Amino acid sequence: MRAVWEQIEALDNKVPAKLQYEAAFQTSRLLRHATYWLLTTRGGALQVDAAVRTFREGVRQLEAETPAVLTGTELVRFEEARKHYTEAGLPPALATRIAALEPLNAALDIVEVAAGHKVSVAETARVYFEVGTRIGGDWLQERIERLTVEGPWQAVARTGLRDAALRVHRRLAERVLARKDRGSAPARVTAWIESGGKDLAHWHRTIADMRAADASDFATLTVGVEALRKLAA
Predict the structure, then answer these.
(1) What is the model's pTM?
(2) CA distance 43 to 193
(3) How confident is the model at residue 233 (pLDDT cuts 50, 70, 90)?
């Protein structure tokens, strides 16, 4: 991230300061999420240097593959963000990198799952994002991101809801990868969906109702995350 900060700072007096602050804010969001993730999953056993060695290469691989592995809402949001930053004045390469920061919230989960299932980072990412697209998890995550917060407690609540949705998303990707199906990510996800049974049918009804109601409040989205959790159980 230091290299990104240097690129942002090098734009002093070349682009509006507001744009620089916006780009820097996106880096801080990702760093905060990664920090929380490590503290939550590693706890008292966290060794920072060892964690860096474990995740560095996989995260770099994922960052390089980001545009190619995204699908659905995630891809739309990435392209919109890249267009926004480019048109606002960021160099194209930096605009792409800043736009990729949001989907990289899933990076540590994806790298860890890839190692656990002995699958490449790129293939794991394709399955991960394909699952989100096919069951509407990307829509649910977008709605959580768009929640309006008033005060620190609602901010904490939104962060908790976002993290819960990401944990469930990870478990669903693991369920697909644990199967013996082979082929492309879409084919593997299709095979899993076709075996979903009543739980998946219930989830489809739930998210259809949420979309019809244009759900955008904490209570409804919390119910959505809980319904998705049952599917991943």
Answers:
(1) 0.92
(2) 34
(3) confident
